[in-house]
């Protein structure tokens, strides 16, 4: 627009006035496309979440039962082990029963019939594995896996971060370590599973009174042998596999928290004649710890949510005993467990999809998703709060 | 304050030298430093251990595979497969003919509304020809089925003997000489065993030549299709052409058969190329197991392509929207929500795919109004598309978060300078901000790819798990076919294999390939990001 | 506090007509006791590098015991670097190195192989530009140095806290809230808390790196008073941007420019009768 022409024609409007143009229409169009993309993502997430919550909640809610003794109420889905479901017609009625209930029912019916001198009734039932009962052992197993692996990962991760942030001077070694951490973060979880299987399940060192395998060391002068027979499918194998998988997350989180501690804390302490270790122990790590723990919760969500690494290292399809029902304490570490994510895999791929199995499938998925979502939400909220507080 | 508040302290000697306690020549502080440094090395050690153990369990694969291929040759399976190839090519041609017939029938009945009986009548000539054509291969088929039995028998004998030898070795190792002597082994004289096989070569060549002559003779009599149909002349011409090509291979096969030598050693390179470029992954078959990674790689690639095709526009679009347009409140709500999506465990998404999405997509594809979409309708509930859609949901948060970071890193001054020159918001974004953060966005996409290609549970549950390279000749339909992936095969078969067997080793090799792909993707992403930092600074 | 009021006011007239502003400084009197000060720190031919970049060039300087020495000079002239060399805080920065020369304290080369920097820092304390109290209580802040040396005797700790806080002229202000967070204090109080924390470990030398640059004039005055009191007991070396401050607090002043020591003399001489034209230009405010 020509300014001088505006001056000569005072009637013409303000030269800065809004002018509708094609480019603005295009801008609006593109904007709405971007906005649509954003909300489409959210809707997709909401559909997945909503479907599982909507169909999963009834399983949990309908499983509340009163009990005779304290605490008078229990939830048969959350707090019992999985069972087979029997579906059959009897006395003209269609019935569904769990394994134990079904056996008892059949026994009483047979006894009744025998007592009445009638022929023993034949009950033809269709059975669906895992479709009755609950998921208590899976919950327990998942919690154990998370606690163990996070303990290991936090220890290694915090120590690594302390080294990288406090001790290390930039050089080829540190750059190499950082590169390794970055790359470790990109390794697919199934590769961690294979690695865990190859190392922990098959070849990890154990101590025993008899030599096993071709390679073993005698722990002279004791009469013990260091064998390389592996830990088998066990909690211990799962712990280490998951811990290594989540290690990059923990290291990154810890470093971020350590960086947030002001430099003055370190200088002030050192200028008072504290050694480096005293400075770190008394004046750095304590202030970084809340940040480390908060950010590591995201790691917990990852550990709890992964299936592939525990498939061959720690998870059993089904196990009758609960983890603490072991003969001696050391067995605790060398037993496999049931785990929620693996249980979902099993019930969604190894049994048919129908009205009888959906109850357990959706219930398990709901409980699992709820658990992970809870952890993730806690992490996101705590982290946002902490960001505000990190101003010394 | 009175100046004498502090009594002058007794002057301490100025001692700043001190001998500290040393462990192995290190002071306490240095020991602690070494301890932490050791922990920091964990990442390096784990990476090294992953490489080592994948190699340790996998490297034996090549030796075993070579043994397997050697046996394939020695037991004559390879020889029979030459013949079988000839037979199968013929079968494919027959199928081509039947396909023409099917299309013609469809045209006649559906488009022209003829009753089926009448249509069949019109195609009677073609049917007669097809029947005769299909019969021409019978002599070869006879040879193949007969010789298959012979070769399998040889292989079986060899395997039994090998197992016996192993057993004996085990007895001997355990010092059980008596039991070892019990075990009977008998070395296989391959030459003698193969005699009946190789002996039939002249007879077979004669039969094959008969087949060739028969085909050549009957080709000119290929009937025309009813005049009312259209578009088949080309197909029939193509059929003729294919036949000519097929016949041209006969002398070559003959030469191969005559030159075949069971003692010819298998080059080591073959076991390697056979794995990397092998188009078959066949396990637990009665004939011969093949471990070729290509179908799995193609499957992984296809689901990743589908996932990125959806996730890239969505993720980058959302990142631009949130970073450049959204209000502060919208940002505060949307960012955690998308982060939250990334926390949905993949096995739950996989379950959602089986329970809901697979059926929903199939139902969608069968809607009449959508039949124009390539590949629609499809009949498989679990296929590459279903898995790809769910993987997109996994990739979106990764791409979104990293792309948003990249956009955020563009200096504010760039944007302000552009606005100050009178550019509109859209112009600023497209010409300044996106180009400035492009390498960040590209690396975000790469890391999204890394996330998708390494994902296991979704593809295991939803990709359909059919080990075959999809038929790309049909265009986009290939993406609606079930596939199997590298991650999926490991998860599925690892639990079923015997430790130390070739199949077990092969799975570790697949893991190794996956590991290197992940490293490569990571490397590229980092390289791009580093370049990007330079360009901004 | 009668000390400052007795100091004469000296006007340094600018020798150049281009700078109309003439500046007035209060120059502290030379130590009245007039006994000649002993040399405590001796810096000889000292070259210092950050990586490949040389930060200090051939510094030769003798610093007196129980006196206040001020380092002045424009930004980046190396005065803070030299200060941090005196208790080896520069060890913590990657790539730093002493290429030539030495620093001796009471005749001991502090860069010598047998010197433990931890022990050195116990004897050579430091107060930083930005006050950095730890997020602990006032009490814990003061005894931090003793705690890490393993002192656990409660009576002794209480004693040191009172003595140090009194020494830092903070006792009366905080004695009722010793167990509240040190971060709750005002800026000037925080800086004095840091000084209290430093003197609690009874060092011989206190290094101050622009201790008042973040403080308001009233808080600055308090810290300056404190410096004056402390020199009875401690050798103080102070880096400052403010020439007035150097003039008010120090006995001797060293002027640095571009990593080199330009002039070192009695504060009075530096401000009133500098030998070097660069020094004169700086103190008269024509650059820097």
Keywords:
heterotrimer, A: 392 residues, mainly alpha, MetI-like fold, 3 domains, three-stranded antiparallel β-sheet, 12 helices, 8 strands, 61% helix, disordered N terminus, B: 537 residues, two-stranded antiparallel ribbon, two-stranded antiparallel sheet, 23 helices, 4 strands, 71% helix, flat
SSE blueprint:
The complex is a heterotrimer of chains A (392), B (537) and C (288).
Chain A: H1 3-8, H2 22-61, E1 64-66, E2 73-75, E3 82-90, E4 93-98, H3 99-115, E5 125-133, H4 136-167, H5 172-186, H6 189-203, E6 206-208, E7 216-218, E8 225-227, H7 235-259, H8 263-271, H9 276-305, H10 308-311, H11 340-349, H12 355-389
Antiparallel strand pairs in A: 1-2, 3-4, 3-5, 6-8, 7-8
Helix pairs in contact in A: 2-12, 4-7, 4-9, 5-7, 6-7, 7-9, 8-9, 9-12, 11-12
Chain B: E1 22-23, E2 26-27, H1 28-40, H2 42-58, H3 60-74, H4 77-111, H5 116-122, H6 124-135, H7 138-173, H8 177-182, H9 190-199, H10 201-218, H11 233-248, H12 250-259, H13 268-276, E3 281-282, E4 290-291, H14 294-325, H15 328-342, H16 346-365, H17 384-408, H18 412-420, H19 425-436, H20 438-453, H21 457-462, H22 486-493, H23 502-536
Antiparallel strand pairs in B: 1-2, 3-4
Chain C: E1 9-12, E2 23-26, E3 39-50, E4 53-64, E5 68-72, H1 79-86, E6 96-105, E7 108-109, H2 117-123, E8 124-127, H3 138-148, H4 154-167, H5 171-174, H6 187-200, E9 205-209, H7 217-230, E10 235-239, H8 243-249, E11 252-257, E12 260-266, H9 267-272, H10 277-283
Parallel strand pairs in C: 5-10, 5-11, 8-9, 9-10
Antiparallel strand pairs in C: 1-2, 3-4, 3-6, 6-7, 11-12
Helix pairs in contact in C: 3-4, 3-6, 4-6, 6-7
Description:
- The complex is a heterotrimer of chains A (392), B (537) and C (288).
- Chain A starts with a helix and ends with a helix.
- The longest helix of chain A has 40 residues, at 22-61.
- With 392 residues, chain A is mainly alpha-helical.
- Chain A is built from twelve helices and eight strands.
- Chain A folds into three domains: 24-62; 82-133; 136-389, MetI-like fold (Orthogonal Bundle), CATH 1.10.3720.
- In chain A, the strands form three sheets. Chain A has a three-stranded antiparallel sheet with strand order 4-3-5. In chain A, strands 6-8-7 form a three-stranded antiparallel sheet, with no helix packed on it. Chain A has a two-stranded antiparallel ribbon with strand order 1-2.
- Chain B has three domains: 22-58; 75-265, no CATH class; 300-536, MetI-like (MetI-like fold, Orthogonal Bundle).
- Helix content of chain B is 71%, strand content 1%.
- Chain B has helices at residues 28-40, 42-58, 60-74, 77-111, 116-122, 124-135, 138-173, 177-182, 190-199, 201-218, 233-248, 250-259, 268-276, 294-325, 328-342, 346-365, 384-408, 412-420, 425-436, 438-453, 457-462, 486-493, 502-536; strands spanning 22-23, 26-27, 281-282, 290-291.
- Chain B has a two-stranded antiparallel ribbon. In chain B, strands 3-4 form a two-stranded antiparallel ribbon.
- In chain B, a hairpin with a 2-residue loop joins strand 1 and strand 2 (26-27).
- The model of chain B is unreliable at 1-9 (pLDDT under 50).
- With 288 residues, chain C is an alpha/beta fold.
- Chain C has a single domain (39-283), classed as Rossmann fold (3-Layer(aba) Sandwich).
- Chain C is built from ten helices and twelve strands.
- Chain C has helices spanning 79-86, 117-123, 138-148, 154-167, 171-174, 187-200, 217-230, 243-249, 267-272, 277-283; strands at 9-12, 23-26, 39-50, 53-64, 68-72, 96-105, 108-109, 124-127, 205-209, 235-239, 252-257, 260-266.
- In chain C, the strands form three sheets. Chain C has a six-stranded mixed sheet with strand order 8-9-10-5-11-12, with helices on both faces.
- In chain C, strand 9 (205-209), helix 7 (217-230) and strand 10 (235-239) form a beta-alpha-beta unit.
- Chain C is globular and about 55 Å long.
- Chain C starts with 8 loop residues before the first strand and ends in a 5-residue tail after the last helix.
């Amino acid at each position: 627009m020509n300014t001088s022409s505006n001056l000569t024609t005072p009637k013409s409007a303000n030269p800065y006035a809004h002018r509708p143009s094609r480019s603005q229409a295009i801008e609006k169009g593109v904007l709405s496309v971007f906005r649509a993309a954003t909300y489409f993502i959210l809707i997709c997430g909401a559909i997945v979440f909503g479907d599982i919550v909507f169909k999963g909640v009834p399983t949990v809610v309908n499983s509340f039962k009163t009990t005779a003794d304290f605490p008078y109420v229990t939830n048969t889905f959350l707090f019992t082990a999985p069972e087979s479901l029997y579906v059959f017609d009897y006395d003209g009625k269609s019935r569904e029963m769990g394994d134990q209930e079904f056996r008892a029912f059949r026994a009483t019916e047979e006894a009744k019939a025998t007592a009445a001198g009638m022929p023993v009734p034949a009950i033809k039932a269709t059975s669906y594995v895992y479709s009755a009962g609950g998921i208590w052992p899976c919950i327990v197993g998942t919690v154990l896996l998370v606690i163990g692996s996070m303990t290991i990962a936090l220890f290694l991760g915090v120590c690594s971060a302390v080294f990288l942030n406090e001790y290390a001077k930039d050089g080829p070694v540190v750059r190499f370590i950082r590169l390794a951490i970055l790359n470790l973060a990109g390794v697919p979880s199934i590769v961690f599973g294979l690695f865990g299987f190859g190392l922990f399940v098959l070849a990890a060192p154990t101590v025993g009174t008899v030599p096993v395998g071709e390679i073993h060391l005698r722990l002279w002068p004791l009469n013990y042998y260091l064998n390389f027979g592996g830990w088998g499918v066990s909690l211990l194998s799962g712990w280490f596999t998951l811990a290594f998988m989540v290690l990059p997350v923990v290291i990154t989180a810890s470093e971020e928290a350590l960086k947030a501690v002001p430099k003055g804390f370190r200088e002030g302490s050192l200028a008072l004649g504290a050694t480096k270790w005293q400075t770190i122990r008394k004046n750095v790590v304590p202030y970084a710890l809340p940040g480390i723990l908060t950010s590591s919760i995201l790691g917990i969500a990852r550990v709890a949510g992964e299936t592939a690494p525990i498939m061959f290292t720690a998870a059993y399809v089904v196990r009758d005993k609960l983890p603490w029902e072991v003969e001696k304490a050391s067995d605790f570490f060398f037993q496999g467990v049931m785990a929620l994510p693996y249980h979902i895999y099993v019930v969604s791929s190894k049994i048919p999809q129908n009205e009888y199995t959906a109850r357990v499938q959706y219930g398990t998925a709901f409980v699992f998703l709820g658990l992970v979502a809870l952890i993730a939400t806690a992490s996101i909220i705590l982290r946002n709060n902490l960001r505000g507080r990190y101003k010394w | 304050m009175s100046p004498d508040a502090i009594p002058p302290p007794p002057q301490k000697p100025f001692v700043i030298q001190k001998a500290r306690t040393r462990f192995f020549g290190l002071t306490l502080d240095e020991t602690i430093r070494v301890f932490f440094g050791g922990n920091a090395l964990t990442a390096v050690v784990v990476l090294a251990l992953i490489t080592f153990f994948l190699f340790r369990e996998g490297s034996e694969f090549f030796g075993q595979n070579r043994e397997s291929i050697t046996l394939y040759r020695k037991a004559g399976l390879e020889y029979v497969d030459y013949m079988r190839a000839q037979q199968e090519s013929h079968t494919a041609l027959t199928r081509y003919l039947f396909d023409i017939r099917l299309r013609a029938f469809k045209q006649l009945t559906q488009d022209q509304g003829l009753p089926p009986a009448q249509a069949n009548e019109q195609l009677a000539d073609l049917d007669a020809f097809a029947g005769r054509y299909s019969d021409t291969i019978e002599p070869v088929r006879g040879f193949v089925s007969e010789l298959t039995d012979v070769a399998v028998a040889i292989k079986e004998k060899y395997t039994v003997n090998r197992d016996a030898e192993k057993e004996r070795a085990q007895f001997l190792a355990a010092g059980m000489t008596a039991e070892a002597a019990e075990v009977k082994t008998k070395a296989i004289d391959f030459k003698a065993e193969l005699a009946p096989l190789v002996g039939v070569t002249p007879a077979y060549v004669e039969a094959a030549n008969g087949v060739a002559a028969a085909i050549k003779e009957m080709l000119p009599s290929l009937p025309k299709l009813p005049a009312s149909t259209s578009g088949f002349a080309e197909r029939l011409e193509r059929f003729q052409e294919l036949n000519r090509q097929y016949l041209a291979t006969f002398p070559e096969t003959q030469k191969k058969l005559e030159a075949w030598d069971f003692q010819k050693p298998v080059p080591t390179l073959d076991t390697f190329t056979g794995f990397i470029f092998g188009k078959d992954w066949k396990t637990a078959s009665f004939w011969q197991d093949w471990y070729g990674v290509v179908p799995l790689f193609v499957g992984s690639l296809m689901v990743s392509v589908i996932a990125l095709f959806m996730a890239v526009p969505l993720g980058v679009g959302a990142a631009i929207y949130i970073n450049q347009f959204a209000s502060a409140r919208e940002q505060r709500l949307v960012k955690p929500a998308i982060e939250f999506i990334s926390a949905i465990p993949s096995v739950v998404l996989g379950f959602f795919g089986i329970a809901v999405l697979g059926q929903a997509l199939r139902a969608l594809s069968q809607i009449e109004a959508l039949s124009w979409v390539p590949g629609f309708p499809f009949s498989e509930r679990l296929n590459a598309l279903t898995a790809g859609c769910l993987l997109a949901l996994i990739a979106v948060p990764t791409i979104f978060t990293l792309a948003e970071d990249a956009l955020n890193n563009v200096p504010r001054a760039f944007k302000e300078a552009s606005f100050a020159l009178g550019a509109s918001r859209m112009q600023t974004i497209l010409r300044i901000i996106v180009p400035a953060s492009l390498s960040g966005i590209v690396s975000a996409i790469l890391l999204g790819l890394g996330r998708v290609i390494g994902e296991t549970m979704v593809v295991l549950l939803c990709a359909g798990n059919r080990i075959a390279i999809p038929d790309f000749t049909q265009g986009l339909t290939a993406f609606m076919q079930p596939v199997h992936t590298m991650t999926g095969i490991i998860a599925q078969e690892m639990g079923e294999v015997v430790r130390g067997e070739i199949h077990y080793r092969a799975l570790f090799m697949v893991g190794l390939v996956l590991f290197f792909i992940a490293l490569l993707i990571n490397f590229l992403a980092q390289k791009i990001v580093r370049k990007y930092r330079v360009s901004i600074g | 506090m009668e000390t400052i009021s007795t100091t004469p006011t000296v006007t340094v007239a600018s020798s150049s007509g281009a700078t109309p502003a003439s500046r007035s400084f209060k120059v502290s009197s030379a130590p009245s006791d007039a006994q000649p000060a002993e040399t405590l720190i001796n810096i000889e031919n000292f070259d210092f590098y950050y990586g490949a970049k040389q930060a200090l060039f051939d510094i030769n300087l003798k610093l007196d015991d129980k006196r206040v020495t001020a380092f002045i000079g424009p930004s980046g002239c190396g005065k803070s670097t030299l200060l941090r060399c005196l208790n080896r805080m520069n060890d913590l920065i990657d790539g730093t190195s002493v290429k030539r020369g030495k620093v001796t304290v009471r005749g001991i080369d502090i860069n010598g192989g047998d010197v433990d920097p931890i022990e050195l820092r116990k004897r050579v304390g430091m107060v930083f530009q930005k006050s950095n109290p730890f997020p602990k209580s006032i009490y814990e802040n003061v005894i931090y140095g003793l705690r890490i040396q393993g002192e656990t005797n409660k009576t002794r700790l209480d004693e040191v806290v009172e003595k140090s806080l009194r020494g830092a002229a903070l006792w009366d202000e905080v004695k009722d809230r010793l167990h509240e967070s040190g971060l709750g204090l005002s800026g000037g109080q925080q800086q004095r808390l840091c000084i209290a924390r430093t003197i609690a470990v009874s060092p011989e030398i206190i290094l101050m790196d622009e201790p008042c640059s973040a403080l308001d004039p009233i808080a600055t005055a308090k810290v300056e008073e404190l410096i004056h009191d402390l020199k009875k007991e401690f050798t103080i070396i102070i880096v400052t941007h403010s020439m007035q401050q150097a003039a008010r607090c120090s006995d001797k002043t060293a002027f640095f420019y571009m990593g080199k020591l330009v002039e070192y003399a009695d504060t009075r001489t530096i401000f009133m009768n500098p030998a070097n034209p660069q020094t004169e230009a700086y103190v008269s405010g024509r650059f820097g």
